[in-house]
Amino acid sequence: MAIRDIIRMGHPTLRTPAKPYPIEDIGSPQFNQLVEDLTDTLADSGGIGLAAPQINEPVQVVIVNIPGGENRYGELEAVPWSVYVNPVLTVLDDSRAGYWEGCLSVPGLRGFVVRPQKIAIDFYDGDGEARSITAEGFTATVYQHEFDHLSARLYVDHIQDPRLLVFEDQMIAHDLGALTKDLQEEVTRGIR
Ligand code: NI
User: Fold this and answer.
1) Catalytic site residue from 146, 168, 185, 186
2) In a domain, 152, yes or no
């Protein structure tokens, strides 16, 4: 068990493309240690996804854990603890929607980001099996956010309107989700 430090925006590793993980090394002690560290670190942080570069390991490994049920994003489809190695993402159609995203490497901030909402993912799982899945809605946004980390991108790179990048405590204090509704819609429809 090891809770690792999460590096923050400004650290060069977050802006360096991650290397593909050698498939033959999935299941090795080093791989299992990496997954365990990611799992422990994510559990400790209370987040829903963590990419290896965020603990300063520049390889294409991501873990996701979305508790299902009702929360501030609405009714969520649960994604149990799962590992994604060398994921390749394909956008299936042009449906788009925005969510307020946060990132453990950009603590304290929330930003409204519009992304494609129907995607397919090809990846290797934690057992080294090649898998293909599809995802929609908020789940699709989570995958895109996490896999962006492997391409040296952060969600703030996708902010279409800087007025929709705010501190989380201010968002709560001023009910910015409701206050910025019109702006969110403009951004989602591509007007801004
Ligand atoms: Ni992130």
Assistant:
1) 146
2) yes
How many whole angstroms from 80 Cα to the centroid of ligand 1? Answer: 18
Token pair 């993402």: residue: 89
**Rg for the chain, CA atoms, rounded:** 17
Tell whether 6 is covered by a domain.
no
* Per-residue pLDDT tens over the stretch 64-75: 999 877 766 666
Q: What sign results for the dihedral spanned by CA atoms 90, 184, 156, 59?
A: negative
Going from the Cα of 155 to the center of ligand 1, the distance in angstroms, rounded, reads 7
Provide the domain limits for residue 22.
Answer: 12-188
* Integer Cα distance of 7 and 104 in angstroms: 8
CA distance 14 to 31: 20
Quote the number of domains for the chain. 1
User: How do residues 112-139 score in pLDDT, each as one tens digit?
Assistant: 999 999 999 999 999 999 999 999 999 9
CATH at 44: 3.90.45.10
CA 162 – ligand 1 centroid, Å: 18
Output the pTM of the full model: 0.95
